[in-house]
Design brief:
The longest helix is centred in the N-terminal third of the chain and has 41 residues. The chain is elongated and about 140 Å long. The two termini are about 35 Å apart. A hairpin with a 2-residue loop joins strand 1 and strand 2. Strands 8-7-6-9-10-17-16-11-12-13 form a ten-stranded mixed sheet, with helices on both faces. Among the domains are: about 400 residues, Amino acid/polyamine transporter I, CATH 1.20.1740.10; about 110 residues, Rossmann fold (3-Layer(aba) Sandwich); about 190 residues, Rossmann fold. The protein is of the alpha/beta class. It comes from Gopherus agassizii.
Length: about 1100
């Protein structure tokens, strides 16, 4: 990232316009931006063996020296953000981040479908399919408008609730290929996911067969009846001939559609747009036709004999006889009911007793026919379709109607059967989610597109039910195949301007829906196969080089062919309904409702209320009951199952071991630590509260019991749900180690340790001294447990406090598995922190593109569904300040003194105070730069003009801040300001190397003892001072600051310095939570 630098010459030296920043001496210390760094702290100090050192790496990597020892396991966030934000939307296995699996798969094209093309249109096309055009009028006529409305509303409500549940899972993270199966299996486990996913796959495949059969029915019934290969010799053979035609044509269409899908999904999408445009045009034609019937209903006559509907396939004139040349002549209808054409012929009794009448099949929306169609008209198979309320005279003898030209029902009808036939039409809601692998942003597109499609189609279906019932005669509605109207499509006759709009639209609709099913089902099977949960299906996980599921498509076509061979649309639809319905009702539960449903509900309500009352308020009784034994057995079984392996990233939650300190009365020193635990856990998961008593158990068991009672009492007050564990150990250190190693049982063990910062760590006789603290940090790291250290814990809020505003600031310096992302999210679920805003800061150095880092971090948070403000703070390399050197000198002097002198507590404190006072009085420097001037262009004063006073008061809250006075005098010579790019900056660094070394040596003229400091400590102190300045500048008034906790040094000789670094890093902050990850990922972007 090109960065500009402004360089100001210093008096006493020749002006050097091209002089790089680090070539100036200590006078430009922290007022300048640093040199380019590679982000890896690999600095070699110029003060150690300076004559022989290669000066090429001078001061590279000083900013992050505090974290350098763990960079291999905890990399800088800047180096990791791009990988975290940009994921590959491929099918994921049981473990999402398996690099070896990804390497085996060939790279496929980047998903690019949006919400409209990828989800909304496929769902719309699948839902507005065969049922709307071929069966909805029949369902309305059979069950009536009211019950039809209930059927459709019930099914649409079911799918809407399903879509909302699916949206909750989809918006929880990234949804790779696999769609609904992926979401179910990752939410309920591989057993449920595999079972439901495979059933859903079979249902989607049979849905394709259903749509293909609907396509053939429209083709052979309404478009081109002459195209039938098998012809029926009589009326009884028509059904069998139609089924054979469906089998032949269906096989051909399945093969054709499979070829289209095999060629590529992009061609399916192109065809889908054409098909869907026809469907939408057809629906508009229906609404236009309904409006037209209000003032100009179409001529659509129906012939009735009495109240019985007649099929017009074998006659054209609706009359028994007509007048021709003043002579009465019988019609063709007469010959169908009589034995000859003469007026004296013997005819059917019902034909003789009743008149032939003709009525309008579509009387219009203003005719009032809606009243007649409100109620159901369920019939048995083979019943004659009759018009309610029409005059009819039945004969005395049983009438044989076989062979007569009546319109008969082909199946027995009842409410639940109609639900089974209609329900497959709404199952098209999964068409979009099945394509999740092809979507650009699946977690956004799936909920939005699916819910919009359900809302649109629900309105269309519900409105069509009312409009059909208000415009069309009931006998026409119940005529499934349009036999009373010369096999015309009823909706087509209703539509305007032409019936062919509906016929063509319904044909393409069923074609498109079948194509969508054959596109989605193989991808679903491929996702199941790639997960490996059903071994014999693994072969279907392979496909073409571009990811198309070839083998899964072949199996899908074969299964679809089975549905084609069944050949009956009304037989395939219930199979689909059963495959997509989850039947979990037990026999006893069903029997209870069959006997008396209202008594069953009352009994369940009473029993439930009594059970909950006894559970909540009843006395605790130990009767050795079976429920208690069952609970123990279930707990044992669950513990054994949990112990099988480490939890998945999505199941990881902080199971906390809280380490408490007790006073001499066995009371808790920091009760707020339990308050914070309660706010973090909210009563969920595992919480173990532990403490250590120093001594022998035989001597201390009474104190241990008292301490346990006190802790449990405090846990009740603070509403901390968990277990208490007191350990008595001869050594406080050993007791802590025992708790960290052995607390918990089986798989229910802690993975996080929460403790308070030892405020009095400088006192060696403190039972929780700095040595114990650092050893605890090391042990949690060795045990791969996360560590949370709350500093200033007594300032943390109680459970009764409420923050009405403020920020929870996260300073994400190094990637530790995501603990820093997870903790504020969990805290903000509690009412104490709920109104606080979450802000995330990360640090960019010279080589980092801060703009891109911010975009990547925002994308990463979007995938995690975290609502937070993002800010990238630029912290460039610069020289180490005099303040840092003095701070390090004081730290090393105190450390050396504590090691060599055996002093009493009071003497040691007086000695430390005298050293501090002496240093404070001696530190006056000619130039001192502020930490808050990082990355800014600074003008340095002349050394002879004005001195900079270092203010270092350890007894004030702002003792880590420094004051810089940079006012130039009137006699200041003209300043030369130059703008530098990164390339010029590096080139000039080598050009002036010798001058640079001389300039660095000048710093020791101020205080010679600085040259003897441990340069590793100097660099770490430099990191602590700079980070503290940046954090104070941004987060001084935050309600809580979460910060990466640097690890202790590998060399244990520097443990006391480690504590000082942490003190400097967090100075001036009210509430700080230092966080160390446990060495594993705890968050994932996957749903």
């Amino acid at each position: 990232m090109p960065t500009s630098f402004t360089v100001v010459p210093v008096e006493g030296q020749e002006p050097q316009p091209s002089r790089p920043l680090e070539d100036s001496n200590q006078q430009l210390a922290e007022c300048s931006s640093g040199e380019p760094g590679d982000g890896i702290p690999k600095e070699s100090s110029p003060f150690i063996n300076s004559a022989e050192m290669d000066r090429g790496n001078i001061y590279e990597g000083k900013n992050m020296a505090l974290f350098e020892e763990e960079m291999d396991s905890n990399p800088m966030v800047s180096s990791l953000l791009n990988k975290l934000a940009n994921y590959t939307n491929l099918t994921q296995g049981v473990v999402e981040h398996e690099a070896d699996e990804d390497s085996k798969r060939k790279e496929i094209k980047t998903p690019c479908m949006g919400t409209f093309i990828g989800v909304y249109l496929p769902c719309l096309q699948n839902i507005l399919g065969v049922i709307l055009f071929l069966r909805l009028t029949w369902i309305v006529g059979t069950s009536g408008v009211l019950e039809s409305f209930i059927i459709v509303f019930m099914c649409c409500a079911c799918t809407m609730l399903t879509a909302i549940s699916m949206s909750a899972i989809a918006t929880n993270g990234v949804v790779p290929a696999g769609g609904s199966y992926y979401m179910i299996s990752r939410s309920l486990g591989p057993e449920f996911g595999g079972a439901v996913g495979l059933c859903f796959y079979l249902g989607t495949t049979f849905a394709g067969a259903m749509y293909i059969l609907g396509t053939i029915e429209i083709l052979l019934t309404y478009i081109s009846p002459s195209a039938a290969i098998f012809k029926a010799e009589d009326a009884d053979g028509e059904t069998e001939a139609m089924l054979n035609n469906m089998r032949v044509y269906g096989t051909c269409i399945v093969a054709l559609m499979a070829i289209v899908v095999f060629v590529g999904v992009k061609y399916v999408n192109k065809l889908a747009l054409v098909f869907l445009s026809c469907v939408i045009l057809s629906i508009f034609a229906i609404y236009a036709g309904v409006i037209k019937t209000a003032f100009d209903p179409p001529d659509f006559p129906i012939c009735l004999l009495g109240n019985r509907t007649l099929s017009r396939r074998n006659f054209d004139i609706c009359a028994k006889f007509i007048e021709v040349n003043n002579e009465t002549v019988t019609t063709k209808l007469w010959s169908l009911f009589c034995d000859n054409r003469s007026l004296s012929a013997t005819c059917d009794e019902y034909f003789n007793l009743n008149n032939v009448t003709e009525i309008q099949g579509i009387p219009g929306i203003a005719s009032g026919v809606l009243i007649d169609n409100l109620w159901s008209a369920y019939t048995d198979k083979g019943s004659i379709i009759e018009k309610k309320g029409h005059p009819s005279i039945t004969g005395t003898e049983e009438i044989k109607v076989g062979g007569l030209p009546y319109v008969f029902t082909d199946i027995m009808t009842y409410f639940t059967m109609l639900v089974g036939i209609y329900f497959p039409s709404v199952t098209g809601i999964m068409a979009g989610s099945n394509r999740s692998g092809d979507l650009r942003d699946a977690q956004k597109s799936i909920p939005t597109g699916t819910i919009l499609a359900i809302s649109t189609t629900s309105f269309i279906y519900l409105s069509c039910i009312v409009l059909f019932g208000a415009c069309i005669e009931g006998v026409i509605l119940r005529d499934k195949f349009g036999e009373a109207v010369n096999r015309n499509l009823v909706i087509g006759t209703l539509a305007w301007p032409s019936p062919w709009v509906i016929v063509i639209g319904s044909f393409f609709s069923t074609c498109g829906a079948g194509l969508q099913s054959l596109t989605g089902a193989p991808r679903l099977l491929q996702a199941i196969a790639r997960d490996g949960i059903i071994p014999f299906l693994q072969v279907f996980g392979h496909g073409k080089a571009n990811g198309e599921p070839t083998w899964a498509l072949l199996l899908t076509a074969c299964i679809c062919e089975i549905g084609i061979l069944i050949a009956s649309l009304d037989s395939v639809a219930p199979i689909l309904s059963m495959a997509l319905s989850f039947l979990g009702m037990s026999l006893c539960f069903a029997l209870m409702f069959i006997c008396s449903w209202y008594y069953a509900l009352i009994a369940m309500l009473i029993a439930g209320c009594i059970y909950k009352y006894i559970e909540y308020r009843g006395a605790e009784k130990e009767w050795g009951d079976g429920i208690r034994g069952l609970s123990l057995n279930a707990a044992r079984y669950a513990l054994l199952r949990v112990e099988h392996g480490a939890p998945h990233t999505k199941n990881w939650r902080p199971q906390v071991l809280v380490l408490l300190n007790l006073d001499s009365e066995q009371m808790v020193k920091h009760p707020r630590l339990l308050s914070f635990t309660s706010q973090l856990k909210a009563g969920k998961g595992l919480t173990i509260v532990g403490s250590v008593l120093q001594g022998i158990y035989l001597d201390k068991y009474i104190e241990a019991q008292k301490a346990e009672e006190n802790i449990k009492s405090l846990m009740g007050v603070e509403k901390t749900k968990g277990f208490c564990q007191i350990v008595v150990s001869p050594s406080f250190r050993d007791g802590m180690s025992h708790l960290i190693q052995s607390a918990g049982l089986g798989g229910m063990t802690h993975n996080t340790v929460l403790m308070a910062w030892p405020q009095s760590w400088k006192q060696t006789d403190n039972p929780f001294s700095w040595k114990n603290f650092v050893d605890t940090v090391r042990e949690t790291t060795a045990a791969q447990q996360a560590l949370l250290v709350a500093k200033n814990i007594d300032l943390f809020p109680t459970n009764q406090e409420r923050f009405s505003e403020g920020n929870v600031d996260v300073w994400w310096i190094v990637h530790d598995g995501g603990m820093l992302m997870l903790l504020p999210f969990l805290l903000r679920q509690h009412k104490v922190w709920r109104k606080c805003k979450m802000r995330i800061f990360t640090v960019a150095q010279m080589d980092d593109n801060s703009i891109q880092m911010k975009k990547d971090l925002q994308m990463f948070l979007y995938h995690l569904r975290l609502n937070a403000e993002v800010e990238v703070v630029e912290m460039f390399e610069n020289d180490i300040s005099a303040f840092t050197y003095e701070k390090t000198l004081m730290m090393e002097q105190r450390s050396q003194m504590l090691k060599q002198m055996q002093l009493s507590k009071n003497e040691r404190e007086r000695e430390i105070q005298s050293i501090t006072d002496e240093s404070r009085g001696s530190v006056r420097r000619k130039i001192y730069s502020s930490p808050q001037s990082i990355g800014q262009d600074i003008q340095a004063p002349l050394p002879d003009e004005e001195e900079a006073q270092l203010i270092h008061d350890r007894n004030t809250a702002s003792h880590s801040a420094a004051v810089v006075k940079c006012d130039a005098a009137a006699a200041t010579p003209e300043k030369v300001q130059m703008t530098w790019t990164k390339e010029k900056f590096i080139a000039e660094k080598h050009k002036n190397r010798e001058t640079n070394i001389t300039g660095f040596k000048d710093i020791f003229n101020m205080k010679p003892e600085w040259g003897n400091l441990n340069q590793s400590n100097v660099r770490r102190m430099h990191t602590a001072v700079k980070l503290n300045g940046v954090i104070l500048n941004k987060s001084q008034h935050a309600q809580l600051v979460l910060l990466n906790m640097p690890g202790p040094p590998k060399n244990k000789k520097g443990d006391e310095n480690y504590m000082e670094f942490l003190e400097v890093l967090t100075e001036g902050l009210n509430r700080v939570l230092l966080v160390r990850g446990g060495g594993r990922e705890v968050i994932t972007i996957y749903s």
